[in-house]
Structures are given as structure tokens and as C-alpha cells.
Q: What sequence folds into this?
């Protein structure tokens, strides 16, 4: 008996390995971001949501820069090799991908924090509140 899971065969192991290894070049997770922030992050964490949502709660240490405002002049404050990690509300939101696309279009290294704020909360991590934005 075939199910929707087995109807399409799994990729050969070498292809699966390449696929999953490649994914880490594009994303990181909430746990790794939290650990890095606790130990001196070597990246800039961007909350790409609106200033109002940022003020209501965000990842401690994040900078608010809505994805629509990611332009070359705003990014000039950081060196060209600075790694950016973007996040938004969660898996139901594509803001992190929009921000990542804008950064990549500017030639900037970028990853997405998978799970966004939903994932952050699911891990049990707290949020910060502020009214300031970049």
C-alpha cells in the first residue's frame, strides 16, 4: 500500500545529504541564534517587521529594520562582509525572506532565522520590548 508519504520515492542519500547541508547556508535556527547572542554574536540580527510590532516584542539584541527599508544607504553602516540574520513573525510570514532577498540583492551575506518569533517563543526564550527602531 502506498501513501502520500511514499508515493514519491525519497531522494538518494547523496542527493539528500547535499540538499540538507546546503540549507544551512541559507538559514539558522532560534536556538543557535540565542546561543550566539549569549556568547557574542558574529552577525547582525534584523527584525524586519514594523516598528510597532518590534516595540511590542522582539528578540533581545535585534535591530528593527523593516524589509521595505533595506536599501544600500541604510546598510552602509556595516562592512560589506557583515552577516545579517533576518526574522519576522514566524513560519506564516514571509517578511524574513523578503528582507533576505533585499540584502542578497545588495550583495550582503544573509541567513534567515527559521521559525521567527513563533520559533523563538516555542524554544522558551523571552522577548524584549522597546519603542526604538533603526
A:
Amino acid at each position: 500500500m502506498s501513501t502520500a508519504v511514499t508515493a514519491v520515492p525519497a531522494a538518494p542519500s547523496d542527493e539528500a545529504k547535499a540538499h540538507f547541508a546546503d540549507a544551512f547556508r541559507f538559514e539558522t535556527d532560534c536556538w543557535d541564534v540565542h546561543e550566539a547572542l549569549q556568547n557574542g554574536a558574529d552577525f547582525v540580527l534584523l527584525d524586519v517587521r514594523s516598528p510597532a510590532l518590534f516595540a511590542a516584542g522582539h528578540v533581545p539584541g535585534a535591530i528593527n529594520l523593516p524589509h521595505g527599508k533595506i536599501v544600500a544607504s541604510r546598510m552602509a553602516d556595516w562592512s560589506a562582509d557583515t552577516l545579517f540574520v533576518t526574522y519576522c513573525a514566524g513560519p506564516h510570514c514571509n517578511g524574513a525572506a523578503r528582507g533576505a532577498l533585499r540584502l542578497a540583492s545588495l550583495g550582503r551575506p544573509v541567513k534567515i532565522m527559521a521559525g521567527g518569533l513563533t520559533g523563538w517563543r516555542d524554544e522558551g526564550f523571552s522577548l524584549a520590548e522597546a519603542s526604538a527602531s533603526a
